[in-house]
Amino acid sequence: MELNKTVSEDLQKIRDQKPLLHHITNMVVMNETANATLCLGALPVMAHADDEVEEMVAYAGALVLNIGTLYPQLIKSMIRAGRQANDLGVPVILDPVGVGATKLRTDSAKEILRELSVDIVRGNAAEVSILGGFEGEIKGVESMGGSGDLINVSKEFAKIHDCTVAITGEVDIVSDQSKTLKVSNGDEMLSKITGTGCMATTIIGGFASVQEDKSLAAAGALAMFGLAGELAAADTGNRPGSFHVALYDRISMIQPGDLKDNAKIEIVS
Amino acid sequence: MELNKTVSEDLQKIRDQKPLLHHITNMVVMNETANATLCLGALPVMAHADDEVEEMVAYAGALVLNIGTLYPQLIKSMIRAGRQANDLGVPVILDPVGVGATKLRTDSAKEILRELSVDIVRGNAAEVSILGGFEGEIKGVESMGGSGDLINVSKEFAKIHDCTVAITGEVDIVSDQSKTLKVSNGDEMLSKITGTGCMATTIIGGFASVQEDKSLAAAGALAMFGLAGELAAADTGNRPGSFHVALYDRISMIQPGDLKDNAKIEIVS
Amino acid sequence: MELNKTVSEDLQKIRDQKPLLHHITNMVVMNETANATLCLGALPVMAHADDEVEEMVAYAGALVLNIGTLYPQLIKSMIRAGRQANDLGVPVILDPVGVGATKLRTDSAKEILRELSVDIVRGNAAEVSILGGFEGEIKGVESMGGSGDLINVSKEFAKIHDCTVAITGEVDIVSDQSKTLKVSNGDEMLSKITGTGCMATTIIGGFASVQEDKSLAAAGALAMFGLAGELAAADTGNRPGSFHVALYDRISMIQPGDLKDNAKIEIVS
User: Cβ C51–B244 below 8 Å, yes or no?
Assistant: First the structure.
């Protein structure tokens, strides 16, 4: 329960401090992640012009990089913004959407990891595995439900890339180099609408802006987002349009006390 | 009822096979068409970088091209993706948004039709007429309600461009070179929110990925989307925000049996 | 009540004439402003390719420029479209999103104001103050609630830039060079979702397309949008996802008579 107390205090800090989350993100989810940011209690800005990203990131509590609809110039802006974030101590969160599907995505995500000090990577099992170089080792990750292999993959990934990694799926696994956490909040409906992975990354950005321990930040964010998904699904059943609307409602309605009582976070390693 | 049986089986195939629909589309509807894809039971990807479209289309069940917010580089990516799709036998669907309004749109749509083998074009009466070169012949198409002239336009278009064409409006007309179908599902509320034409094109992509007969694919998709519109309008009345939400719910809730019982497709020529 | 009668007649004109609102706008709100346009009763088009903006603006009742996700080429397209709009007498509305946050935003907004005859600028107190050169003079504008200083800022801004200006916030202030209006409709929930400022600008574009007196156009639009916010908040309470949906419903449901009865517009100078 000590973990739950900490993450609930982090939520209160976000609501009090209203950090700016600077997104350089994909065109599919710009509106949705901006609204998720507001529901969390933070402030969104979407700015990707090469000429302004350094100035914008200076106001930010976190920088969220998402390669969902990447193109070469966008990656340049991400690296420019990320270097400034590194210089200023602003946490950098990377969502390597679709890594492994194309060479451009894989190369771009690797370039970002090489050029920047990334604090947290959030991806699904396939994306993290590919980016960690484990393709051959974990077959059928989607059906594994977050058991043994994913814990090892996450620990190895954290070591190789010197960062915190969050693998999201039926169960979420978060590792830094010293500990591994499991988060069991969530609902299957989160996989029935687009952009929920990107929203999770945004909310991780919010928690990372107020919490030095980045694996705890990621776990707290995933517990909160998963809890919002549970509550929204209870409201709307198997209707994806209605669920999408209720998801925003529920993110905004969750109070620190709710998170303290209902976060399902445990240390597994 | 033989047609209805076929299109309901096609819907079941989509739900079973979960084809990837690769979109190179406009910035207004990226989220909305991705969500429509998920509600249909398929998987969306939005990828338009010149360097990755050939790889991405190799995974796809269909390639959806939509020129709603076009710019010259995007058209190049569409043609590159489309050539690969043609080589691999992946169906190509074109939505020529706003053709006729500007020279760039008209020239770009014509270039796509010239450079690629397009399987299905989906547009409104004005767009299809202009792209078929019939401007002078069918005046006031918007008020015609899909009667005689549109059938002739669609047949001629299919012949000229060697493809299937779907003209959507109060009644939808679908022609290939051997037959013409009329689809009477739909609701006026579909014209009260943006992106429903684009969503229809997306759903045509889904049906085209499992059905060789492309006019049947287009008719089945339009019947299903129109039925979802009818059901959503019955849920929400004349409230466009609520209708938009219910439309996603209803796309996802329609089962093959519902489509078999309620599709209004007939052969008219 | 003479003002209310005029703005209600303007709403009727929009519903009758269905003007096309040409947007060159940001990627976050393209769908949302297109849907707000349809709910208002006008027709949206989003077109930003340099090669087509002159043709497109020729069909338009108003040109809406929004720099929310600007990049240098987009500003060039805005200026090209705006010159054509000026030549054709199409009203130009500018939303200087984030001016002051980065040099690119400030320089771009100033370039637009210098190169074009802008009819109406719509921004929050900070944006308008910075663009008017008043940074040092009005501290803490966000907490001022639209009292004295903002009226002076708006009057000075209108004089300097020879245009109408609308400062939106808890209370909205609209000035041209001859009069200043205060609009008191609105609800705090409008600040809980993204894009409501951009939607307000879109609706100003709609009213500007039917009303020569641009401060009256802006005031009517802000009264209508604020009233929609009040009604939507009454429907949904403190739930931002549900409020977003209800906001579209309410924009579309407001009739001229409702606006006549409930607009809170007064002349303050």
Answer: no
- The Cα B16–Cα A132 span in angstroms is 31
CB of A29 closer than 8 Å to CB of A167? no
Q: With contacts defined as CB-CB under 8 Å, which chain C residues touch B248? A: none
The superfamily CATH assigns to domain C2-267 is Ribokinase (3.40.1190.20)
Helix (H) / strand (E) containing B136: none
Q: What is the mean pLDDT of residues A159-178?
A: 96
* Tokens coding C247: 């906001």
Residue of C26, C66, C102 for testing the chain A interface, max A β-carbons within 10 Å: C102
Inter-chain CB proximity C72 and A56 less than 8 Å: no
Q: Can you name the residues that pair with A66 across neighbouring β-strands?
A: A95
3-state helix vs strand vs coil in chain A, percent to 5:
55, 15, 30
Q: Mind listing the pLDDT tens digit for each residue in C234-246?
A: 999 999 999 999 9
Q: What is the pLDDT of residues B178-221, one digit of tens each?
A: 999 999 999 999 999 999 999 999 999 999 999 999 999 999 99
Interface residue C255 vs chain B (CB under 8 A)? no
| Nearest by Cα to B7 from B165, B156, B248, B203 | B203
Tell me which chains share at least 3 CB pairs under 8 Å with chain A.
B, C
pLDDT in tens, A48-79: 999 999 999 999 999 999 999 999 999 999 99
Contacts of A35 in chain C (CB under 8 A): 193-194, 240-241, 244
- Domain ranges (residues) in chain B: 2-267
- Strand, helix or coil for residue C260: helix
pLDDT higher than threshold 90 for residue B114: yes
The whole-number pLDDT of residue C156 equals: 95
Q: How many percent of chain C have pLDDT more than 90?
A: 93
Beta bridge pairs of residue A102: A99
Q: Which tens digit of pLDDT belongs to each residue from B16-67?
A: 999 999 999 999 999 999 999 999 999 999 999 999 999 999 999 999 999 9
Q: Does C106 touch chain A (CB under 8 A)?
A: no
Q: What per-residue confidence (pLDDT) applies to C136?
A: 53
Pairwise CB contact (< 8 Å): A56 & C27: no
Q: How far apart are CA C209 and CA C217, in angstroms?
A: 8
pLDDT digits over A99-155, tens only? 999 999 999 999 999 999 999 999 999 999 999 998 655 443 344 444 458 999 999
CA B246 to chain centre: 20
Long-range contacts of C234-238 (CB under 8 A, 24+ apart): C236/C189, C238/A252, C238/A253, C238/C189, C238/C192
Q: How far apart are CA B161 and CA B139, in angstroms?
A: 22
Half-sphere exposure of A79 (CA within 13 A, CB side): 15
Residue type, C103: K
Phi-psi region of C162 (alpha: psi -120 to 50; beta: other; left: phi over 0): left
b/e map B88-104, b = 16+ CB within 10 Å: eebbbbbbbbbbbbbeb
